[in-house]
Design goal:
The chain has helices at residues 5-11, 14-21, 25-30, 33-62, 77-129, 158-171. With 173 residues, the protein is mainly α. It has one domain (5-129). The chain is elongated, with a radius of gyration of 42 Å. Residues 50-63, 73-85, 93-113 have a biased composition (Basic and acidic residues). Residues 50-173 are annotated as: Disordered.
Length: 173
Amino acid sequence: MGRGIRYERQVLSVDEVALVASTHHPALGALSDEELAKLRTLVRERRDRARDIAARQRREMRGKAAAKGARPAADDTGSRGKRDLLAAAMKRINGETTRREGKAAREAMKDSAQRALALRSRREAESARRPATRTAGEGMRPSDSKATKQRNRAKLGAVSQHTKNMQAKRDGR
C-alpha cells in the first residue's frame, strides 16, 4: 500500500525526505545516470542503517540484547516505517535503472541491426555489379544436348538383359 508525503515527512528526517522525494516519478526520470548511481548509494546506506536499528530495537524489546540507550526500546514502528519507505525508494531506483539498461540494450540492438542491413545491402550491390561465374554473351550459340536425343526403343533393355543372361549362364555351371 502506498504511503502519502505527509507520512514520509512524519517518519523521515529532513534530508531523508529530500532523498526520497527525488526517487518519485518526475524527479527520478530527470536525473542523469551518475546522479542516479549516487542517489542509489545514499538511499541504500540509509535503508541499511534503518534496517539495522529496527532489528536491534526488536531484539531489545524481546530482551535478547542489551539496551543501546538508557532504557530498552519499547516500540519499533518508527524505525520499521523508515525502513519500509527507504526500501520502497530503493525499489523505485532499481526499477528506473533496469528501465534505462533495457532502453540502452534496445538502442544497441537497433544500431546493430541497421549496421548489419547496411553491410548486407552493400554486399548485394557489389554482387549485382560483378557476376560470380562466367556467363554467356550474345555471341555464343546453344549446343545440342545429348540427353534429349531419341534412342532406339527396341534396344533400351538390351544391355541389362545381356547381363542377366550372362549371370544365368554362370549360375547354371
